[in-house]
């Protein structure tokens, strides 16, 4: 099964190279989500587990929120994270797509992580009562909207841009 994913990866890279000069955030996301759905269709238990673990989460994410600006340029995302990723294993390809989707779909705030101090916090919400949470990509720290560290057993989702704006949360100063 690994050869199927790696073939799909090569096709993704080829498409990125073709569209390179005119590509935008939305196009990259659409290409990666399309690739993810192709992986989802592969009938292999290992692939299905990887999809469930790393990519299924993004089925519920909105790509229309164009206010999300990655902390590094689209050119770097394309060149470093996607096109120049060889040699690549099939599981690493899935994880790399997850990493890029995370960067492009999850709002990164101007709030510095109080736990590690090495990163700015992402803005998330839960599905139950739409409370805001802030998470650190590096140390995994989770804070509630009042800045208190939390231990959460529920799944968190990207906070909608409207909610982020309503709370006056500024984006990461790139």
Written account of the structure:
There is one protein chain. This protein has 174 residues and is an alpha+beta fold. The chain has 2 domains: 2-105, no CATH class; 108-166, no CATH class. It is 44% helix and 13% strand. Strands 1, 2, 3, 4 and 5 form a 5-stranded antiparallel sheet that branches. The mean pLDDT is 86.
Topology (elements, then pairings):
Blueprint lengths: L1 H18 L5 H16 L4 H11 L18 H10 L6 H16 L2 E5 L7 E7 L5 E4 L6 E3 L11 E3 L2 H6 L8
Helix pairs in contact: 1-2, 1-5, 2-5, 3-5
Quick synopsis:
With 174 residues, this protein is of the alpha+beta class. Helix content is 44%, strand content 13%.
List keywords for this structure.
174 residues; alpha+beta; 6 helices
Radius of gyration: 17 Å
Percent of residues in helical segments?
A: 40-55%
Q: What structural category arises from helix and sheet content?
A: alpha+beta
Large-scale geometry? globular
Task: Report the end-to-end length measured between terminal Cα atoms.
Answer: 39 Å
Q: What is the H/E order?
A: HHHHHEEEEEH
């Amino acid at each position: 099964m690994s050869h199927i994913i790696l073939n799909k990866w090569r096709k993704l890279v080829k498409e990125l190279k073709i569209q390179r000069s005119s590509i935008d955030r939305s196009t990259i996301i659409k290409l990666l989500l399309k690739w993810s759905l192709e992986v989802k269709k592969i009938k292999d238990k290992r692939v299905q587990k990887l999809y469930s673990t790393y990519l299924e989460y993004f089925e519920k994410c909105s790509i229309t929120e164009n206010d999300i600006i990655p902390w590094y340029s689209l050119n770097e995302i394309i060149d470093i994270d996607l096109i120049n990723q060889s040699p690549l294993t099939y599981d690493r390809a899935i994880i790399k797509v997850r990493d890029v989707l995370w960067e492009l779909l999850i709002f990164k705030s101007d709030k510095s992580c109080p736990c590690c101090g090495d990163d700015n916090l992402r803005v998330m919400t839960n599905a139950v009562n739409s409370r805001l949470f802030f998470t650190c990509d590096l140390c995994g720290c989770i804070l509630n909207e009042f800045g208190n560290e939390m231990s959460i057993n529920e799944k968190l989702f990207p906070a909608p841009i409207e909610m982020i704006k309503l709370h006056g949360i500024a984006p990461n100063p790139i």
